[in-house]
Amino acid sequence: MRLLTYLLSVLAIAIIVFNLSKINTSAPFENESYTAIITALAGGCAILILTILRVVKKIDRTVKEKS
Description:
Blueprint: H1 2-22, H2 31-66
């Protein structure tokens, strides 16, 4: 499970980097730039969710070890 979350995090980072390169700085809220911004934000949300999942799993393991 841990390996999968790291793999998905790397994939999300790649999506963010790709979409940040697609943003037109002179008109960031038009056509493809707007889509790239939304997709980059979605990748950031995916990283946040996967990080929360890793922390929850770590807490679960420590609670089970203490029981």
